[in-house]
Design goal:
Mean pLDDT of chain B: 85
Strand order of the largest sheet of chain B: 1-2
CATH architecture of chain B: Orthogonal Bundle
Distance between the termini of chain A: 45 Å
Helix content of chain A: over 70%
Low-confidence stretches of chain B: 322-333
Strand content of chain B: under 5%
Low-confidence stretches of chain A: none
CATH architecture of chain A: Orthogonal Bundle
Number of strands of chain A: 2
Helix content of chain B: over 70%
Shape of chain B: globular
Number of helices of chain A: 11
CATH topology of chain B: ABC transporter involved in vitamin B12 uptake, BtuC
Number of strands of chain B: 2
Structural class of chain A: mainly alpha
Oligomer: heterodimer
CATH class of chain A: Mainly Alpha
CATH topology of chain A: ABC transporter involved in vitamin B12 uptake, BtuC
Largest interface: A-B, 42 and 40 residues
């Protein structure tokens, strides 16, 4: 039973991080209508900027996270302005290749600045809490708490504020949004900023129990793609549900099947699902 | 006339390639060129499905790895001769391509790319984790060099270079035949529009699948050559960054042209060789280059040049009305 609960905890940890990354990806997809392969590099950039702020400048963990969120939001907005905006009328293939260009640039840039070594990010939350026979690492609880707080805040922002509503409107129908006077440029920049900040914060949450390295975004972003395909491209609740599904599948798969193959589980799930339902689990139909 | 110039151009390139070992300063240059040729074969394959048929396959390096590991495993663990294993490499990749294609090609546009990205990851992870078959992270060492054929011995670099060149020429010739045929036009029709192609009576799935399988066949073959040339394999060869490399070669030269991917696959590695600083951090430069290319030169070097030629030819065929002609001259001056 404890082992089962331990896996639930692991599933929630992974699911929380994946949801945050997938949320940003799905919001940007709504605006671009193209998968942003650079999103994984945004995640990586978040971890590195926090690592720099915490380990090199000696700031505390939360300032590191804030710094990472701001830095990545900036990188994200810059790439929208410099790359995706000029390409908005180009075929989808060009968007994808351009996003790969950004990904390669950021990864090589991080490697040039900080080298190819693995780094460990410090966290003040190293305690182990015990609850009955269950041991709960504080950082994991922090991840779960922070991830779900962010998800709820984002959901409130999107549904309760006018600015949030403009994002949703533009994701649903670009022309319609323009017709009712929504400033597409402003919304696109805002969306990229939010997506970047979420990816940055997810990285700072997860990095202390993992490591910081230049290709750390690869698996996370690929899984985020699986998640948003599962949840329906562009759907916010879908990204949250998809994140939890993949998080739990991985935690339980690692435990009951094999740790070696846990990373394959998400992809195998995608292959299986797309073979049966090419449009994704909760897709609102093709666009 | 146009046919003549293009034939002259290709012959010139071939002569240059044949003379290269006598001009190259050392074996290292031969190695760089041979590896570039091997990647050129794979890139030419990627260009068929992505450039001509319009489906961006992100698992291409995975299929190259399948071909390479086919040769590695069969020769090292089962003692098969290189040539027999090599002959199988393309077919094993193509056979897996049939299954992947059947599922993935039902998906359109970026869904196809995301799916193949995941397939590429599965291939990479399987190679890394399935130790009993692939030797895991240790990799496969001691892959034999291609056995001599009659008087031809492939143990020294120059002979290996010619062997690889031979396959590159054959690949280009076959690709030329494919894209100039009705089949090639079918692929291009699909690239331009699924619906239009369907309205023309083109069976979408069958043709996409054919394009995909042919494309990964080239990748498998290139992988087989790679195994025989480098003679060491690790899971890294399946990494998606190699697909990104090939995408860049394809785009620099000109996507959807025959010459473009070839020039990109040879030119870009040489550029990185000469700018030694770039070796490790090449993507700090090439990442933005890729972005600038898709924004400002989406047809690459060859594609842009060909479009200009075509426009010139069109202008020559239909003489411009006199009212516009003078202003045109001003532009030229």
């Amino acid at each position: 039973m404890e082992l089962f609960l331990q896996q639930v905890l692991n599933g929630l940890t992974l699911g929380g991080v994946y949801s945050l990354v997938a949320l940003g990806l799905t919001l940007v997809y709504g605006i671009l209508h193209v998968p942003n392969f650079a999103h994984g590099a945004f995640y990586m950039a978040g971890a590195y900027s926090a690592f720099f702020l915490i380990n090199k400048l000696g700031l505390n963990y939360w300032w590191g996270m804030l710094g990472a969120a701001v830095t990545v939001a900036l990188i994200s907005v810059l790439s929208e302005r410099l790359v995706f905006h000029p390409l908005r009328k180009a075929p989808y293939l060009h968007h994808m290749i351009a996003s790969i260009g950004i990904l390669l640039f950021l990864e090589a840039g991080a490697q040039a600045l900080w080298g190819a070594d693995f780094h460990r990010m410090e966290t003040p939350y190293t305690q182990l809490l015990t609850l009955g026979s269950l041991t709960l690492p504080a950082q994991r609880l922090l991840i779960i708490g922070a991830a779900f707080t962010l998800v709820v805040l984002l959901q409130l922002f999107l549904t309760r504020t006018i600015t949030g509503a403009t994002i949703v409107a533009m994701a649903q129908n670009r022309e319609g949004a323009a017709l009712v006077g929504i400033d597409a440029t402003r919304v696109a920049m805002l969306t990229f900023a939010i997506a970047g900040a979420l990816a940055g914060m997810a990285a700072v949450l997860y990095a202390p129990i993992n490591l910081v390295y230049t290709s750390m975004g690869h698996l996370v972003i690929t899984k985020a793609f699986v998640i948003i395909v599962l949840g329906g491209m562009g759907s916010v609740p879908g990204a949250i549900a998809g994140g939890l599904i993949i998080g739990f599948a991985e935690a339980f798969g690692a435990f009951y099947i094999s740790t070696d193959y846990k990373d394959i589980i998400a992809f195998a799930l995608l292959v299986l699902i797309l073979s049966v339902r090419p449009q994704g689990l909760f897709a609102r139909g093709a666009h | 006339m146009k046919r003549l110039t293009s034939t002259v151009g290709w012959t010139f390139l071939l002569l240059l390639a044949l003379a290269f070992p006598f001009m190259a300063g050392n074996d290292y240059h031969l190695t760089v060129m041979s590896t570039a040729y091997i990647y050129a074969i794979a890139t030419v394959g990627l260009n068929l499905i992505t450039g001509y048929t319009g489906q961006f396959n992100l698992a291409h390096s995975g299929f190259m790895a399948v071909g390479a590991y086919t040769v590695g495993i069969l020769t090292v663990d089962y003692g098969m001769s290189f040539w027999l294993a090599f002959a199988l490499s393309g077919f094993v990749a193509a056979a897996i391509g049939v299954f992947v294609g059947l599922v993935s090609l039902r998906l359109k546009t970026h869904f196809f790319s995301i799916f193949t990205l995941c397939v590429g990851y599965i291939m990479f992870l399987l190679i890394e984790k399935w130790e009993s078959l692939t030797h895991g992270t240790v990799g496969i060492v001691g892959i034999p060099a291609p056995e001599p054929i009659g008087p031809l011995d492939f143990s020294e670099p120059r002979a290996q270079y010619y062997l690889v060149l031979c396959f590159l020429v054959a690949s280009l010739w076959i690709m030329h035949r494919i894209v100039r045929s009705l089949l090639g036009r079918t692929f291009m029709a699909i690239r331009n529009s699924d619906e239009l192609a369907q309205a023309l009576g083109i069976h979408l799935m069958r043709n996409k699948l054919l394009s995909f399988v042919l494309s990964v066949f080239f990748a498998g073959l290139a992988g087989g050559l790679y195994a025989g040339y480098v003679r060491f394999l690790g899971p890294g060869i399946a990494g998606v960054e190699h697909t990104f490399d090939m995408t860049m070669y394809m785009l620099v030269g000109g996507i959807g042209t025959l010459l473009g991917p070839l020039l990109g696959a040879i030119g870009v590695p040489w550029l990185t060789q000469y700018l030694q600083v770039l070796q490790e951090y090449r993507f700090v430069v090439f990442g933005p280059v890729l972005v600038l290319l898709v924004i400002f030169l989406p047809y690459g070097i060859v594609g842009t040049w060909m479009n200009r030629q075509r426009r010139k030819a069109a202008a020559a065929r239909t003489p411009a009305p006199p009212a516009i002609a003078p202003s045109k001259e001003v532009h030229h001056a």
